[in-house]
Amino acid sequence: MSSKPDNTTENLNVKSVQDKEDTWKNFKRLMSYAKVYKSAGIFAIISMLGYASIDVYFLSKLPALIDEGLNGANPEFMKWAPVFVIVCFIVRGVFHFLSNYCLAWVGNNVVTDLRQNIFEHVMAMPVAYHDTVSTGTLISKLTFDTEQVLQATSKSLLTLVQQGAFVVGLLILMFWQSWQLSSIFLVITPIIAVIVTIVSRRFRKVSKNIQNAMGEVTKAAEQTFNGHKVVLTFDGQQRENERFAQINKYNRQQRMKMVATKSASVPLIQIIASFALAFVLYIANIDGFVENLTAGVFMGVVTYMTMLLRPLKLLTNVNSEFQKGMAASVSIFALLDEDKEIDSGTIPLEKAQGKITFEDVNFIYPGDDKTTLKNLNIEANIGETIALVGRSGSGKSTASSLLLRFYDATSGQVKVDDQNIIDYQLKDLRKQFAYVSQHVVLFNDSLANNIAYGKPKASKEEIVEAAKKAHVLEFVENLPQGLDTNIGDNGALLSGGQRQRVAIARALLCDAPFLILDEATSALDTESERHIQDALNELQKNRTCIVIAHRLSTIENADKIIVMEQGEIIEQGDHQSLLAKNGAYAQLHSFQFG
Ligand code: ADP
Predict the structure, then answer these.
(1) Which is the closest atom of ligand 1 to the Cα of 388?
(2) Residue 10: what pLDDT?
(3) Which CATH superfamily hosts domain 356-593?
(4) Which of 282-286, 506-510, 520-524 has the lowest mean pLDDT?
């Protein structure tokens, strides 16, 4: 028992060394993004140093102003003083502009590159990753965290170089003018340093927490807003309000902790510094000490000391600011280090003939422990339509996801034209499939571009042809700019049935040899339904189709109907033979048709 505290201290030490190494590694990695913009960065730093030097130079003239100028000892001095002031401020202004502009240029370029990297990385990540991470979290990394990195690192670099150089300059000036008075200042420095370390350590911890807390707020709100109707239906408003209140409160507490630390640190350091000033005034009063000081030098040193307070205050905040940026970059780099989707396939595939085979396929979702698909054997020959039916959760969608390699079979093989699909180049494989689901995804773009999403180079005639076959042209006439009408965010302008017809037109246009059709569960009005069914019949022609059927009426003509239950095939055959069998399919059928 007695050795426990020692262990803890040791662990803490190891952890803090580890943290420092991680911070350094992160910083180096961040700097690798800035490397490309090195020249602008160097220019910014030179301007910062110039800015600080001008300030110090300007202040160095203070004793002379008092001793030579104001008391009339040197009339020349006063003659040139106004010109000196103006020239100094012009040069200072130029340096100020250049340093800020160049720094922002580097920073914004780095953030743009980072965002692009994150965006491309997220898009390249496997479906399994997207299953586990909420969109809110990803967006927060893309926007909030990158912004944080930009703000924090530019600000700390600016402060560190500009204010750092100013402090060094002032110190040199002080010692040069009176080392005795200035030495007193040195007494106070270590005390300030200790406080700075304690405060910044605490600040870093809180800063990490607040970032998590903010993510929680976005996540909780997003989930609840998305599920608004469900909440209303189950009378969950009160519960959701309370849950959100808790998260909201936690976020406030974290923020207030940060404010408290920040607000306490500044006055604390200033109070300690004021002791130095008081001490100087006290010493100056002692006989003999001041005899060889002129009024100008004394006023100069006291002014320099007072002027040191502001940059020192800024410098004490540098570490915490820097840590804030580093905490954000840790979260960004963790995302960038996630594995991308692996494409080990080497065989190119221009256009498949149209055969699909599942051979003894078993599948377990990553991180799951139950087998979702068990011993699946399916064969679809060229041009056939295979219907998958079964209760919700029986594994129909999962089986179709394997075809597109959103997930890979845990064991067994999925084949296209008798070749294991993992051997095909991933891009080529996915090009073979048109996918029409009940959740139609449309982009904020023109109707024509939405139809041509799978074949961006399609000609106007091809698009019109597809739109005609999919019965899209019927409602296009009512749109203000026809096919060129922008359909709004996720196709807000269109009704459910119209959206499906657009999706069908899209699938028709890309003319893939396979079609995966996840049929609508929701009933549409008869008019829409007839149009959609016609469009679907058109789409199914000359293609091998896998239909995930929710309503049995649409699949009676399928070549093969596969009935699934808890990830297993329990029956298969055509409509008539399955009805005659009087098993699970017949039961489902009589259930749906009364
Ligand atoms: P169906 O399409 O027949 O309704 P699914 O293929 O969607 O069935 O689901 C089959 C089973 O797999 C269900 O138990 C479901 O909960 C589970 N499942 C679906 N998606 C995932 C996922 N991303 N991660 C883990 N389990 C999942």
Answers:
(1) 3
(2) 56
(3) P-loop containing nucleotide triphosphate hydrolases (3.40.50.300)
(4) 520-524
What distance in angstroms lies between residue 372's CA and the mean position of ligand 1's atoms?
Answer: 7
Residue nearest to atom 23 of ligand 1 (CA): 131
Which atom of ligand 1 is found nearest the CA of 518?
2
Question: CA-CA distance, 351 to 545, in Å (whole number)?
Answer: 15
Q: How far apart are CA 396 and CA 377, in angstroms?
A: 13
> In a mutational test of the pocket of ligand 1, which residue from 362, 364, 372 has the highest number of ligand atoms less than 8 Å from its CB?
372
* Residue nearest to ligand 1 atom 13, measured at CA: 393
CA of 463 relative to ligand 1 center, distance in Å: 35
Atom of ligand 1 nearest to the CA of 567: 10
Write out the DSSP string of 143-175.
Answer: IIIHHHHHHHHHHHHHIIIIIHHHHHHHHHHHH
Whole-number pLDDT of residue 1: 38
Mean pLDDT, the chain, rounded, equals 84
Determine how many CB atoms are found less than 10 A away from the CB of residue 39.
10
Task: Look at the block and give the residue holding tokens 């903010």.
Answer: 214
- The DSSP string of 280-297 is HHHHHTSTTTSTT--HHH
> CB under 6 Å to ligand 1: residues?
131, 365, 368, 372, 390, 392-398
User: Tens digit of pLDDT for each residue in 23-41?
Assistant: 888 888 988 998 989 999 9
Q: Ligand 1 mean position to 110 CA, how many Å? A: 40
Q: What spacing in Å lies between the alpha carbon of 386 and ligand 1's midpoint?
A: 20
- 30-336 — its CATH code? 1.20.1560.10
At 90-119, the pLDDT tens digits run 999 999 999 999 999 999 999 999 999 999
Tell me how far apart the alpha carbons of residues 264 and 561 are, in angstroms, rounded to a whole number: 72
Domain boundaries, the chain: 30-336, 356-593
